[in-house]
Amino acid sequence: MGKKIQAVKGMNDLLPVEQKDFKLTSSFWQAFEDLIGSWMHRFGYQQIRTPLVEQTGLFVRSIGEETDVVGKEMYTFSDSNDSLSLTLRPEGTASCLRAVVEHNLLYNSPQKLWYMGPMFRRERPQKGRYRQFHQVGVEALGFEGPDIDVEMIVMTAALWKDLGILEHVTLELNSLGNREERAAHRQALVEYLIGHEAALDEDSKRRLHTNPLRVLDTKNPDLQQICNNAPRLIDYLGEASLQHYSQLKTMLDGLGIEYVENPRLVRGLDYYNMTVFEWTTDKLGAQATVCGGGRYDGLIEELGGKPAPSIGFAMGVERLLLLVQEYGSLSCQSAPDVYAMHQGEGASLQVMKYAQALREAGFSVLQHSGSQSLKAQMKKADGSRARFALIVAQDELDSGTVTLKDMQGSLGQTTLGASELLNTLQEWNSK
Ligand code: HAM
Fold first, then answer.
1. How is the chain split into domains, by residue range?
2. Binding-site residue set
3. What homologous superfamily does CATH list for 26-177+237-327?
């Protein structure tokens, strides 16, 4: 027997059953995907699907060389044929924008797009943090806001409501201003942090020169005082940025959407400006952010397109579903309606015909495969959690009848003419 090969660390199989250390099942996931499709349709967004692999330069240019994602977490390899450097996508925004620019989608009108799929980051795996994880992302391209900023938040809040988790998440908001405002703040911040350099930890000393805003993100309790007293970006915002931010907040107030202003919210990717937001929860331990996004007004131009102010967000599907599973509600259909059993020569073929007719009428039918005893088949029917069992044995075959059994309720068992099967099943199903 060959040696077993295991999945790559931090990359999960999604199975029909719960695993010890990964409780999400494929039917729960499927129910979520179905909901996402209708949720996006409700808001009039269109789906885009891009390749899982892109040229490395796309992510370096958009996400930023100094970010953790680009600096430490990307799966990069060279394509042996033409020595091109390729990377498994660590997020969806860059790929989406690359496609939009490449196919000139913004030529006539702005675009409201969404995507869903696997992303790859070589992070240290733990509950809610994986090396292959999944995002649902939304990008609204060519809109100045702040009304579209509000739309992003309204959309996410509507989804949390559908999933029954609205009371378990908090909306955090901040504005990063424009490039010049950030540069002025950065300079003041660096000067301030240099004044406190001796007290900083190694990570912060490194970030001080590469990405000083991220120093404020530190979890080190000894640095909280220094961070609290650091120059605040909000004090460097000009009139237009402040106005955008305050209009956004006024609209959220008007809609009754609660938020917490977090002046330290900077996000981990370099392309953001103005509005940034995150939905966080205190129910998932360290991996608290279930969804994050913001404006990236300069990115399309950076990637070779005409300037188009834009905003988007992405949610981590694993994190979100772990939260929904424990605290929310999402009904999924994993059991078939009918388990179809057969015994005796010719019964299998006859059952196939009945099963097909029931499927055409909208029922899901799991047909027993193989030729076990009826007792063994009934055990399988039980295990499948089907609501009804359909039985065709020699007696039924000879008399042109079928036996129907209610496996979950109190309707019992009856034998009826084959032509009455569909009607009876519909009637039983509606009880
Ligand atoms: P992000 O904050 O890097 O933003 O990721 C979005 C979400 O993906 C996170 O809030 C988290 O829920 C989930 N996530 C990230 N890394 C992992 C991981 N290793 N394991 C599990 N879940 C993870 C972006 O990716 C931006 N592209 C969002 C965006 C779209 N901004 C504008 N448009």
1. 26-177+237-327, 338-430
2. 91-93, 121, 135, 139, 267, 271-272
3. Bira Bifunctional Protein; Domain 2 (3.30.930.10)
Token pair in block for residue 305 = 């397109």
Whether 64 lines ligand 1, by a CB cut-off of 6 Å, is no
Instruction: State the DSSP H helix or E strand holding residue 76, giving kind and residue range, or none if neither.
Output: strand 76-79
- CA 89 / ligand 1 centre spacing (Å): 12
The structure tokens listed for 150 are 């509000």
Q: Which residue has the tokens 């609204």?
A: 140
Q: 170 to each of 8, 157, 358, 398, how far by Cα in Å?
A: 33, 10, 46, 65
**Separation between Cα atoms, residue 308 and residue 290, nearest integer Å:** 27
Q: Enter the tokens of residue 426.
A: 């519909």
pTM for the whole structure: 0.91
Whether 338-430 and 26-177+237-327 are alike in CATH topology: the answer is no
Question: What is the fold of 338-430?
Answer: Rossmann fold (3.40.50)
Residue with CA at minimum distance from ligand 1 atom 23: 316
Q: What is the pLDDT along the chain (431 residues), one digit of tens a residue?
A: 899 999 999 999 999 999 988 999 999 999 999 999 999 999 999 999 999 999 999 999 999 998 899 999 999 999 877 789 999 999 999 999 999 999 999 998 999 999 999 999 999 999 999 999 999 999 999 999 899 999 999 999 999 999 999 999 999 999 999 999 999 999 999 999 999 989 998 888 888 888 888 888 788 888 889 988 999 999 999 999 999 999 999 999 999 999 999 988 888 899 999 999 999 999 988 889 999 999 999 999 999 999 999 999 999 999 999 999 999 999 888 899 999 999 988 999 999 999 999 999 999 999 999 989 999 999 999 999 999 999 999 999 999 999 999 999 899 999 999 999 999 999 999 98
What distance in Å separates the CA atoms of residue 323 and residue 205, rounded to the nearest whole number?
A: 35
Q: With a 6 A CB cut-off, is 135 part of the ligand 1 pocket?
A: yes
